[in-house]
Amino acid sequence: MRQNLVAGNWKMNNNAEQTADLIGDLKSSMEGFEPNCRVMIAPTFVNLAAAAPNTEGTIVEVAAQNMHQAEKGAYTGEISVDMLKSVGIQTVILGHSERRTYFKEDDALLKAKVTTALANGMEVIFCFGELLAERKAGNHFTVVESQLKNVLFDLFSDQWKQIVLAYEPVWAIGTGETASPEQAQEMHSFIRGLVNTKYSETVANELTILYGGSVKPDNAKEIFSKEDVDGGLIGGASLKVADFTAIIQAC
Ligand code: PEP
Predict the structure, then answer these.
(1) Could you give the residue numbers annotated as active site?
(2) Nearest protein CA to atom 1 of ligand 1, as residue
(3) What letter does residue 170 receive in the DSSP assignment?
(4) Which ligand 1 atom is at minimum distance from the Cα of 98?
(5) Pocket mutation for ligand 1, best pick of 5, 6, 9, 12 (most atoms within 8 Å of C-beta)
(6) CA 250 to ligand 1 centroid distance, Å
(7) Closest-lying ligand 1 atom to the alpha carbon of residue 176
(8) Where are the beta strands (DSSP E) in 46-150?
């Protein structure tokens, strides 16, 4: 049975004190209700070591926003998988469009990162999605298919248990423009179909596929109600506890 998930990507926001405050507020606002989904937050690297123990014993899980593909070595300023694991992190977001755009992360690099993460027992939230021009040209299915094939389709069936997909059309991220629930469902169903064809119905059915891109309290319920949408990766709205909690409740 696949699990729903709502994950908040906090990006480069919040210092140590603000992170602790936001986690405190989130824990208080979650008291007394049992969500129908896993709940996750992804603070920036320097705040992970404090966030992990701060959420222990709660339903809030903590993920990293990125990691380096090498196990260790002379990579000044980078963070390894072992460093993440050593502070209690078991999930990493890879392939976010901001990493692809601003840091030129391509399929080959992402494949190396996914390989390292999985080999070290991490769960990966793998992000992908088309640009506005690609959608306008009607190429969105082809683009998404190649992003998935190039990075993930050499995995063994068993490794898909460690994968969560996050379809994030780039034109909808931080823009206030959301894919319609129908557009999200159409793409998610296409993605599940690809995994079914390449692997099996079991792998496809057990796969959690998140939607990301301007999910807010007022559109979350409709998007999450679609059959193949198993929750969301939330940027801006995850920084406001009331909004994030409302989105979790919508799942
Ligand atoms: C994101 O950055 O993954 C994202 C979905 O952002 P937002 O919700 O702000 O569009």
Answers:
(1) 96, 168
(2) 235
(3) G
(4) 2
(5) 9
(6) 17
(7) 10
(8) 60-64, 91-94, 123-128
The model's pLDDT over 104-146, given as tens digits with 9 standing for 90+, comes to: 999 999 999 999 999 999 999 999 999 999 999 999 999 999 9
State the first-to-last Cα distance of the chain, in angstroms, to the nearest integer: 16
Are 97 and 127 in contact by the 8 Å Cβ rule? The answer is yes
The DSSP symbol for 128 reads E
| Contact predicate 7/232, CB 8 Å | yes
pLDDT tens-place string over residues 49-105: 999 999 999 999 999 999 999 999 999 999 999 999 999 999 999 999 999 999 999
Rounded distance between C-alpha atoms, residue 201 and residue 116, angstroms: 26
Nearest C-alpha neighbor of 41 from the set 30, 26, 21: 26
Query: What pLDDT sits at residue 177?
Result: 82
| pTM exceeds 0.85 for this model | yes
What's the chain's average pLDDT? Answer: 96
| Cα–Cα nearest to 117, from 146, 147, 148, 90 | 90
For a mutational test of ligand 1's pocket, the pick from 96, 215, 224, 239, i.e. the residue with the most ligand atoms closer than 8 A to its C-beta, is: 215
Residue 73's Cα: distance from chain center in Å?
A: 27
Which residues, judged by CB distance below 6 Å to any ligand atom, belong to the binding site of ligand 1? 9, 168, 173-174, 212-215, 233-237
Counting ligand 1 atoms within 8 A of each CB, the residue from 99, 210, 233 with the most, and so the one to mutate, is 233
Quote the pLDDT of residue 178.
86
Q: Which residue has the tokens 């989105």?
A: 247
Check if the beta carbon of residue 14 is closer than 8 Å to that of residue 49. no
Q: Which pLDDT score is estimated for 33?
A: 83
Judged against a pLDDT cut of 90, whether residue 176 lies above it is answered with no
